[in-house]
Write a structure and sequence with these properties.
The chain contains 17 helices and ten strands. It is α/β, with parallel strands linked by helices. The protein is globular, with a radius of gyration of 22 Å. The two termini are 36 Å apart. 46% of the residues are buried.
């Protein structure tokens, strides 16, 4: 069976130009003793918006791997797929993020609910979670609530998994189950029984992406109390351990953190807690590479700077359309967005430092960063010009991409000086 490494990172590259810089960061981490499995991911929504195909991601990943001489595992992720969208990813992907968020809350058949409750009675009362000093309190009524909320979603995950398995063969791909794009986070007790459901459906899930409390907005830091996240994260880590041992799940099953880029206030907790409990993690960084391309073009100046200024000005004019698909994962204060007239007079340094996520930098503007994050569609409609500018300025752009992934993400996660 294909197995995902202990530490892995989702490397979103919307326009397929930065795989070499992304892989360079992974290789440098390896040189420092941190082995991270690279996973190139791109969602169906992003393919539709840009006009690309899943095979484009496979070609990029295979090409940069071959050119670099990298001889360790890597994967291509069909990100946030469901039953209707999975088919176009079958041939090119060997990692499938099965998104069941839209199925959560839909009720399974009463017969199935009763069967699950009856089969879980041994866990009513008190469930000891080794390593936490805590016990999960579980009643029959709670089992019913959990089954009514999640059992249908688990069955849909199984339906999607079986479709992939029929076409690719068992053991030939990594399975992740994602339930992060919902309004309410799952409790440790809910996570425990969700994993039981997935086990009963015989899904060999290697990563699970729960919803955490607080906001994981795209491209900016965590909005919430990091200490609350740390307690929640540790509880979930140990519940996963318990579920592995209780339900015969894959021993390498680990947490997946979606919208994980730029959550700098959380990285010390993620790093220290996974180290403390000898667990791995999968961190998805989709979108941040596109931002670094914009920053690199701004730094290049001239026509490239003019191009990204125009992208920003157009994003102000089309803000509602651009933000609508991402309303749950962005939080923009429009009063804090600079006007188009103001930005048109900025130099390279001002534009780049306004977008680059450096906490404490007085120029850094998280509202502008989030807006540009969702404005990649505006570059896609000028694809030929955009690709020409990326190629002409590839040295400065690739440095931005590498520095972002290695210095601001990997070094923080693994406490590398």
């Amino acid at each position: 069976m294909k197995k995902l490494g202990k530490y892995s990172m989702g490397l979103g590259d919307r326009f397929g130009h930065q795989g070499h810089a992304q892989l360079k960061a992974i290789i440098e981490a390896g040189n420092r003793g941190i082995e991270i499995t690279p996973v190139w991911n791109k969602s169906n929504r992003e393919h539709i918006i840009i006009g690309t195909q899943p095979w484009d991601v496979r070609i990029e990943a295979d090409t940069v791997i071959k050119n670099s001489g990298f001889n360790k595992s890597y994967f291509v992720d069909a990100d946030h797929i469901n039953f209707d969208t999975v088919d176009r990813f079958i041939d090119s992907s060997d990692f499938f993020t099965i998104d069941v968020a839209s199925y959560i809350g839909k009720r399974a058949d009463e017969k199935d609910i009763v069967e699950f409750i009856d089969g879980s009675e041994e866990y009513t009362g008190s469930i000891n979670v080794p390593g936490t000093g805590k016990k999960l309190k579980s009643s029959k009524s709670q089992l019913r609530d959990i089954a009514e909320k999640y059992l249908f979603a688990a069955r849909k995950a199984a339906e999607i998994y079986r479709k992939i398995e029929r076409l690719k063969g068992a053991g030939n791909f990594i399975t992740e189950v994602s339930m992060d794009e919902v309004n309410v986070s799952q409790t440790p007790l809910e996570l425990f029984f969700i994993l039981k459901m997935l086990s009963e459906e015989e899904i060999p899930v290697q990563t699970i992406a729960p919803k955490f409390s607080g906001r994981f907005n795209k491209g900016v830091d965590y909005a919430g109390d990091p200490s609350t996240f740390a307690e929640e994260f540790e509880d979930d880590l140990l519940v996963i351990n318990l579920a592995i041992n209780s339900f015969n799940l894959p021993e390498n099953l680990k947490m997946s953190i979606h919208s994980g880029s730029d959550k700098f206030s959380l990285y010390p907790y993620i790093g220290s807690l996974t180290k403390k409990h000898d667990k791995g993690f999968h961190l998805k960084t989709a979108g941040t590479t596109w931002l670094e391309e914009v920053i690199g073009l701004a730094e290049a100046g001239g026509e490239a700077l003019d191009f990204v200024k125009e992208i920003y000005i157009q994003s102000l004019e089309n803000i509602d359309e651009l933000c609508a698909p991402y309303s749950d994962v962005i939080d923009i204060d429009t009063a804090m967005l600079p006007s188009g007239n103001a930005v048109s007079g900025w130099n390279s340094g001002k534009f780049a430092s306004s977008l680059r996520h450096i906490p404490g930098n007085p120029d850094y503007n998280p509202n502008m960063r989030q807006l540009i994050h969702v404005a990649y569609k505006l570059a896609a409609v000028q694809m030929a010009k955009y690709f020409r500018l990326l190629d002409e300025n590839k040295d400065v752009v690739s440095v931005c991409v590498y520095d972002n992934i290695y210095h601001r993400h990997i070094c923080r996660l693994f406490d590398i000086d």
